[in-house]
Specification:
This protein is an alpha+beta fold. It has two domains: 14-122 and 130-178, no CATH class; 189-271, Ankyrin repeat-containing domain (Serine Threonine Protein Phosphatase 5, Tetratricopeptide repeat), CATH 1.25.40.20. It has helices at residues 14-37, 126-129, 143-150, 154-164, 191-195, 197-206, 221-227, 231-239, 254-260, 267-271; strands spanning 47-57, 64-76, 80-85, 100-104, 108-115, 138-141. The radius of gyration is 21 Å and the shape is globular. The model is unreliable at 1-10 (pLDDT under 50). Pfam families: DUF2314. InterPro entries: Ankyrin_rpt (IPR002110), Ankyrin_rpt-contain_sf (IPR036770), DUF2314 (IPR018756). Keywords: ANK repeat.
């Protein structure tokens, strides 16, 4: 990642505003991937971060300086995105890298994660004589980045991508999930949700109290799996006897979160 990846904007560029809106609408896919990353023993993501605006008012002039910067170590409770500032501010003096922030979902400006594709392994004798092929992580999301890339001449765009050391692909085709072109069904449900079905059933049989346990925000397992968009997990939880009427600390049921995040494949299951 570039040392300082900022966007300075007066908020009047309609294309940038559109990028912000698309990032907020699709953030659920970022969180779905991040939620599975949190369960992996071996990390699968090369990068996962969210962009938000930070501001500081000049006490003498009253002018407001705004910088859009990235936060990482992301958490999400269905309403609020939290994490730690990654960047060194250019002009702001009231914040610094490592500061913790909680940001309403409707105020983020972008999200980005990157995954390294499986490298093509040489076969036969070529294993002995060929050097390993460099594989660049594939980027997903990055709506504001693609907006900027679209405005760049080709040579500048290549220089930008090289600085990030990421494969951003075509700025006209922003991908949301891993292997989206090869496996469009991944847009509906994360493959790990399906692959872990047997293990999850076994887990709930061994630890049935997990169905009713809630964290400090009042989120139960049903809330969390709904927020992450995991249909298979939601079905298993309901079949195990979870109470779908339980409310979070903010007074929301799992169905409320499904509707709020527009998980269309989960809403009917929770309404049933």
């Amino acid at each position: 990642m570039e040392e300082n990846s900022f966007i300075f904007t007066d908020g009047k560029d309609p294309k940038m505003i559109e990028a912000y809106e698309k990032a907020r609408e699709t953030f659920k896919y970022f969180w779905r991937e991040q939620s599975w990353e949190n369960r992996r023993i071996i990390p699968g993501l090369d990068l996962a971060c969210v962009k938000a605006s930070f501001s500081q008012e000049d006490p003498e002039t009253g002018e407001n300086t705004v910088e859009h910067m990235w936060i990482n170590e992301i958490d999400f409770d269905g309403d609020t995105v939290s994490g730690f500032l990654m960047n060194e501010p250019n002009n702001l003096t009231n914040i610094q890298p490592g500061d913790y922030f909680e940001i309403p979902l409707n105020e983020i400006s972008d999200w980005l994660f990157a995954i390294t594709p499986a490298a093509k392994k040489p076969k036969g004798l070529s294993k002995l004589f060929s050097s390993p092929e460099q594989v660049i992580p594939k980027a997903y999301g990055g709506f504001t980045i693609h907006k900027m890339r679209a405005d760049m001449p080709e040579d500048e765009r290549k220089e930008h991508d090289d600085a990030w050391q990421l494969d951003f692909g075509d700025f006209n085709e922003i991908l949301l999930v891993n292997d989206q072109l090869e496996k469009p069904e991944n847009l509906v449900e994360h493959p790990m949700s399906k692959n872990m079905e047997g293990e999850f059933v076994k887990f709930l049989k061994e630890y049935p109290d997990e169905l009713s346990n809630a964290d400090e925000k009042g989120l139960t397992l049903l809330h969390k799996e709904t927020i992450a968009g995991n249909l298979t997990s939601v079905k298993i939880i309901l079949k195990a006897g979870a109470d779908r009427s339980i409310q979070s600390g903010k007074g929301k049921t799992a169905l409320d979160y499904a509707k709020q995040l527009n998980w269309e494949h989960i809403i009917p299951v929770l309404e049933g």
